[in-house]
Amino acid sequence: MEQHNIQGPLRPGDRAPNVVLDAITHGGKIAIDDFRGRRPVLVGLFRGLHCAFCRRQIAAMAELETPLRDQGIDSLTVVNTPTERARLYFRYHPIPNLLAASDPERVSHRAFGLPNLEFTEDENKWPYKVGMGTMMSMRVDLPGELPEPMNPVAASEFLDKLDGYEVTDDDRQMKADGYGQLTGEFLLDRDGIVRWCFTEVPDEGRYLFTSPSRQELMSAAAQLPA
A Pfam family name for this chain (predicted)? Predict the structure, then answer.
C-alpha cells in the first residue's frame, strides 16, 4: 500500500490519493481511481459504525445520494469497521443505493490528512491531542434525539441505547485503535481534484459530530467543472 504523509486535511485544489479498500455493499474492491477520469465523487470518511454520531453522519450523506446522482456525482462512504461486521450492520439497516467500503486500518483517513485525536489527561494540542476535561466540557446538541445538550460520552451512550446498537468485539477493537479518528467529506471532480471539503478538524473541535449543511454541499456540487 502506498504511504501518504499529509500535513493536515486535503484542501480544495489538492489531488486526492488513490486508496484501495474492500467493498461492503458488493464483492471485490473499491478504489478512488475507479472514479478518476469518469465521474466526480463525494467521499465520506467516517469512524466505524460503533460511533453513534457517524451513523447519523452517514445517513445524512446518504440522503444526498439521489440529488448528487442527478448532477452526475457518485458517492462513496468509508467506515472504520471490518468488512463482515459492516455487511451485517447494513443487512439489518439497509440504505438504498449505498456504495460503501471498509477501512479498519484507517488508511484512507491518513491519506486524506485526517488526524487520529489522542485523548490525554490534560494536554491540549488540537487536532492531535485533547485533554479529557476539555472533551467532557463539550456539548453535543441533537434536538429530537437527545433530551438536552450532553457531553460526547454521555451523548454516545444515550444514542447507542436509542438505536439499540449492540457493541461487538470488532467494535471494541476499532474504539481502542481509533476512537479519536476525525472525519471528513471530500468532493472530488472527475480528475480526482478536491473541490470542496468539510472536516471535524477546524476551530478547536467546533465541527465535531456534525455534518455539512445540505445547501453548502449542493452549492459546491453545482459549481463542479463540467
Answer: AhpC-TSA
The domain tally of the chain equals 1
Rounded Cα gap, residues 150 and 155, in angstroms: 5
Task: List Cα–Cα distances, 131 to 74, 180, 194, 199, 208, in angstroms.
Answer: 38, 12, 32, 20, 15
In a domain, 131, yes or no: no
Reference 14, options 31, 32, 2; nearest CA is 32
User: What confidence tens digit (pLDDT) does each residue in 140-153 have?
Assistant: 999 999 999 999 99
Domain extent, residue 34, equals: 20-112+167-220
Does residue 35 sit within a domain?
Answer: yes
Q: Is residue 156 part of a domain?
A: no
Q: What is the pTM of this model?
A: 0.94
3-state SS, residue 93: coil
